[in-house]
Amino acid sequence: MSSIVRMQRANRGSHFRAYRLHGADPSLLDPFMGIDHAWMSAPTFPPHPHAGFSAVTYLFLDSETGIANRDSQGNGNLIEPGGLHWTAAGRGVVHEENPAVLGSTTHLLQIFVNLPLDRQNAAPFALTLAPHDVPVVHRPGARIRIPLGSFDGVHSPLRPPTEVTLLDVTLEAGTELTLPVPAGRCTFFMPINGSAKVDGEVFGLDDLGVPIFSSVTEATTHKLVAMAGGSKVAVFIGEPLHQPVISNGPMAFATQESLMAATAAYHRGEMGSL
Prior knowledge:
mainly beta, seven-stranded antiparallel sheet, 4% helix
């Protein structure tokens, strides 16, 4: 079963613009909680807490600069164009990301991924994948980068706490790519550049449409075809966790009690500071 969800524009001045996908029905994206497709050229978000889920940043190769990332656990690194950083917030961490060169533009996905219930109150940790460690599969007219999960037997070396797939797919005009999806997974296609068709349904940046396919009991395949001018598409695949999502914005848990406890811990300074 498929449906089309429209992304929303979410700009913060001239230095941050984004197309935001957050399902009104959280089960549509499960285990993903939301995605920002964004361009950022200056500090936009001051140090802020996360708890109960994972915040994931993926930079596209056309970014003019990297992102300086740091958190209250003492982690600090440069996320380079083409690289990925995964912050599993667990019971709570304070986090900050800014363009490494102010005035230069980063082109990114900010992906929020739910954590399994038994890991929501675990200690926070971070995972990093450098651009040269992202596997790439080439097909005639197609390039598929695999920062998370797998495609055609090729696996990302990253092993995150929630098993998901992210494919950065670039297609020349008219190129067709078949994407197999295991049983029980949800799948959705986010347009990054240009327009494409998936299973005959047209979507693209013109209408901000995101085709979403809910999980089914049998394995399936989807046919992705680039329209005139070619296209770039981010493909998301994940196995739903089927958990409640109770959120106050920067924190999200499966129970109100855990959310209240994390909020209190943050205000007591127990998540650290930057």
